[in-house]
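=== Per-residue structure ===
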Amino acid sequence: MTTSSLSPDVRTEFAAATGPLAGLKVVELGQLIAGPFAAKTLGDFGADVIKIEPPVTGDPLRKWRLLKEGTSVWWQVQSRNKRSLALDLKDPDAQDIVRQLVRDADVLIENFRPGAMEGWGLGPEDLLALNPRLIMLRISGYGQTGPDRDKPGFGVVAEAMSGLRHLTAEPGRVPVRVGVSIGDTLASLHGVMGILMALHERQRSGLGQVIDVALYEAVFNCMESLLPEYSAFGAVREAAGSALPGIAPSNAYRCADGGYALIAGNGDSIFKRLMATMGRNDLGWDPALADNAGRVQRVKEIDDAIGAWTAQLSVSEVLQALDAAAVPAGRIYTVADIAADPHYQARGMLQSVRMRDGSELTVPGIVPKLSRTPGSHRRNAPTLGQDSDAVLREIGLTPAQIQALKDKGIVG
């Protein structure tokens, strides 16, 4: 595992940052997941991310799920490579500070409900007038326009509206959620794509722009053939459990030790190798099963045959046989499996960071991998307001002015 620790000179650290986005100044006004995940991704690749969060309470994510010394360990992932400025955005003086930060910023990220930024005098018209080169990412449940724009929208609602939740169940059973905030994360990644495209375009025009990402649209964008199948055939795709409807065989199969092997034998040549491994050349060389269309017609027969074979072997035995035959297959990992997996280790995806109390915490590594300008874990997640003084001095405030703002409770 690689190890990271806090730099003694944070300002120097950010000035000397490497990576493809080194020199990029990002102001993050979001909280929880969608906006901050986008900013975290930029920070991983060298951007100087100034995270603005409320004094006293901070970003609610600081207290979500399991805590270590009073702070969520999730926080160490979501807020690495960021600086924290504790600022009460509802106060006019704080809004002025944001305007000063924006004057030389490249990107501003926010994920408040539509209208909140405008209410503070920080809407696109206000900020782009101060800095025409600014790129403003706005992530919300339903987008900045449309009849539902003012409704509160969390990721779980977006996942349902996109059609995803309808498909995540066993047939006839209650739909279940994906076990992570996939709607927020997909919206974040779409936001990062938008930022990078806008930065590229800015090289030609010299102008910034607004990127409007709706959570439900980000998930809907990943729904593959769902809509065109309905348009062309009136087909409403239904939940299919662990199977992949219309693509065969691809399913989870129970093994002799009670575990499951995930097997994707849906390529034409792969299917033949799978059947040969199982001793079922009668199916592998059946002309009617030579392509996916034919296999889909007899998917139950094929699944039953695979299930009968896996039921005689442990998960490890199944995977060993299929690896030897070059058939895509895998086991269902728990986090304990991930932490012990040598491939995760070899790819740098298990990164150890040293905490303030001297203990080590394992966090996910950097994605994607760039050969020449890779991302890096330069700095652990900040404590609340850790960088308030430094950031405010950078925009010209004196120590006396900063203390006056702290005395009023505007800065933490």
About this structure: The CA atoms of residues 309 and 408 lie 71 Å apart. The domain at 250-254+260-331 is CATH 3.30.1540.10 (formyl-coa transferase, domain 3). The two ends are 35 Å apart (CA to CA). Confidence is low (pLDDT under 50) at residues 1-12.
